[in-house]
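re: ur question from yesterday

yeah so i grabbed the chain u mentioned. its 381 aa long if i counted rite. heres the sequnce exactly as i have it in my notes:
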Amino acid sequence: MSFPLQNNFLKYLEKFNMYSEKSEKNGLVFVRDKIEDYNRITKDYNEIIALEHAEKYKADAVYFKRFNDGKPSIPLIYLYDFTLIEKQNNELANLHKKLWNASKVPLFFIFSNSDVKIFSCLKQPIDKKTGEPALNFIEQIKLASNIKKEVEKIKNFLAEKFDNGSFWNNPEYKNSFDLKKSAYLTLLQQLKLTRKKIIAKKILSEKVVKKLLVMSILVKYLEERKGEKGNTVFPEGFFSAFTGSKNKDDFAEVLKTKGACLKLFDELSGKKRFNGEIFSWKDKKEREELKNADLTVFVKQFFDGKMSGRQYTFWKLYSFNDLPIELISNIYEDFLGKKEGVVYTPPYLVNLLIDEVMPIADFEKRILKLLTLHAVPASFW
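ran it thru and got these structure tokens back, copy pasting raw so excuse formatting
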């Protein structure tokens, strides 16, 4: 065990019946133990994958719902130990933003030296008054208190409530786990609303609007996405080459610069960047339309959206470094429609095929070569 027994984190976990010093308890797995020894802590490879994700988000432990009939475990809660190092509210809000975008677990608990804040990963990290990203927990419990009200709150989040599923029927918290409020579906909804508003402005034809929105999402995804070493797709100064100003080095500024976005897409569709037709604009009429259009309104609608009647930059809520990759496929399908001859492979089927070819249960570290094919026909547009 990597944690000292006198640590308040362990004592607080005991209050929720998630940890016991005397015996193994329910579905709790410490992430640090995962690093030390996979096989000792779990034989469930779904748990190992879940622990890899938890490590990325620096969780200290994960609570799983486990089954006795052979079904794979489900990660339910990320547990964070901040009992020794107090975190500022802006740091917690940023963590909430990441986990809301990632959607790996429905809940996470933040333990400080005196209390626990409980968050739903399906509840937007937003201040309803200002519309800005902010701390938005569903419950705060003072763990050092013996006040009856605080003690009763703990009972709502006991391990057995998650083991038997009764927690999800609690009317006090049920509304905090609405799938429609997930980052995944919220972004799709906002993009559809943006598409409708831009088409109504008649600054571009409907076909060009749809195509530009999809391409813009792809560029935003590439702009923010980071590799394991923290490297980015676009180097510093990449966008300023199209805006003509070192102070305007982002995609939004490219869109504001008349004719610049077409030059950017031509660059991205070149063989040195991305092979294929994904960023290609071949239709002469569409090229001319995009080249001469004033996209200021497009930028305002695309990057500055409305939600709950309040104006704010809804991009601030999203992190493409954390959003599920399948989002891109869904945007293609929802915005451009399925075309004859184009087949979309569901993620669950992809995972099944990979496991059949390279089952994780038999996996040992070795040198592997993986060939992936991504085809987007010109007729798709």
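noticed a couple things. The longest helix spans residues 183-201. also Strands lie at 28-30, 61-65, 74-81, 107-111, 115-120, 139-142, 305-307, 310-312.
anyway ttyl
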